[in-house]
Write a structure and sequence with these properties.
Elements lengths: L4 E6 L8 H17 L1 E6 L1 H4 L6 H17 L8 E4 L5 H10 L4 H5 L2 H10 L6 H16 L4 E4 L4 H18 L7 E4 L33 H9 L17 H14 L3 H7 L5 H28 L1 H30 L2
Parallel strand pairs: 1-2, 2-3, 4-5
Helix pairs in contact: 3-12, 4-7, 4-13, 7-8, 9-12, 10-12
The structure holds adenosine-5'-diphosphate (ADP) and sodium ion.
């Protein structure tokens, strides 16, 4: 029996991924790769919609790929590749852009948010058509499911609309994918600002736990995490966002239930609790960091793995693209 297809990706927007990317995406990908025929992309074409230094972008792309592997995405089990290595992404995006309404694209809330932040001089047409490229990413692989954060749900809806529209107009070329929305419990917040999402593009990284940081740096950040004056280790997102966030990280990394962690630290202070979490983080990320650094130490081998995986991705993507070209008369 063939396994259902899965597609997901991340932008190479920093040298290191952060614990939210790990818990919210990579840990899930690692589990899902068993039951699905999974395609995991480092979406460097998408990253071009933000200002980038070319050498830095290339380095971030390699580092992101190394962290996928170090976190347990197996290049022999999943197809783990760099988006720009497969030209069909850009080619299909062009075809899809010709069946996307201008007004339809203009309704994307992420574009509205980002363009408001960038201002009209910094807002490119590429940022506007970003969701169309994302639709191409997904549809090329005939993905059944697409694990995404809440913020990407609208883009997957657009992807579904474009697939149905194309199939209706030109004949069946695409499977219509279903989003798999990340659970709320997998949402990690900034340690210094526990009501805003931890992000690799945060303005200050004082509250960001980096996968590739020296473990002693992560431990210090945990010890300095914002809590409250109540003094009890108890989950309450509204009243105790800082402590709740630490509990979520603790639970996710150990596979334990939150009440069992609350019990363990009942009657003890935040200092003990933070020390416990720091140990968990060091134990989990220590080996991941080690493995990522080893991979980055052997660029030829990493390139070989990425090239082999890109070839596998390309074989699937080119088949879809050839069918699409044929159907539209190219
Ligand atoms: P970032 O904000 O770090 O740049 P992206 O927006 O590139 O992250 O998201 C990459 C993946 O990581 C997505 O699947 C997203 O849902 C997940 N992710 C990012 N930040 C978090 C977080 N704080 N908590 C949980 N998941 C997250
Ligand atoms: Na981002």
């Amino acid at each position: 029996m063939t396994k259902p297809r899965l597609y997901s990706g991340m932008q190479p927007s920093a040298d290191s991924l952060q614990v939210g990317n790990y818990i919210g995406a990579l840990m899930q990908w690692r589990d899902l790769q068993e039951a699905y025929d999974a395609y995991f992309s480092v979406v460097d074409l998408h990253a071009l919609t933000q200002p980038n230094d070319p050498a830095e972008l290339r380095e971030k792309t390699r580092r992101t790929a190394a962290q996928y592997i170090a976190a347990g995405i197996e290049p022999s089990k999943s197809t783990l590749y760099v988006q720009s290595h497969v030209p069909a992404h850009a080619q299909l995006a062009w075809v899809l852009s010709t069946i996307t309404g201008f007004g339809e694209a203009g309704r994307m809330t992420q574009f509205k948010d980002k363009s408001a932040r960038y201002g009209s001089d910094q807002t490119s047409v590429g940022l506007f058509t970003y969701p169309v490229l994302m639709a191409a990413d997904i549809l090329l692989y005939q993905a059944d499911i697409v694990p995404v954060g809440d913020d990407q749900k609208q883009h997957v809806e657009l992807t579904r609309d474009l697939a149905e529209r194309f199939n209706g107009r030109f004949g069946e070329a695409f499977r219509v994918p279903v989003p798999m929305i990340q659970q709320d419990t997998a949402r990690i917040y900034d340690l210094q600002n526990p009501t805003s999402k931890m992000s690799k593009s945060a303005e200050s990284d004082a509250g960001v736990l980096w996968l590739l940081d020296d473990p002693t740096v992560s431990a210090k950040k945990i010890m300095r995490a914002v809590t409250d004056s109540d003094g009890t280790v108890r989950f309450d997102r509204q009243a105790k966002p800082g402590v709740s966030n630490l509990l979520v990280i603790y639970a996710a990394l150990t596979g334990r239930q939150i009440p069992s962690i609350e019990d363990e630290y009942a009657g003890r202070g935040y200092g003990d609790f933070k020390k416990g979490l720091a140990e968990v983080v060091v134990e989990e990320f220590g080996p991941v960091r080690q493995r990522a650094l080893e991979l980055l130490d052997d660029p030829a081998e990493l390139d070989r793995v990425l090239a082999a995986n890109a070839a596998r991705a390309e074989a699937v993507a080119d088949k879809t693209l050839a069918d699409v070209y044929d159907k539209v008369g190219l």
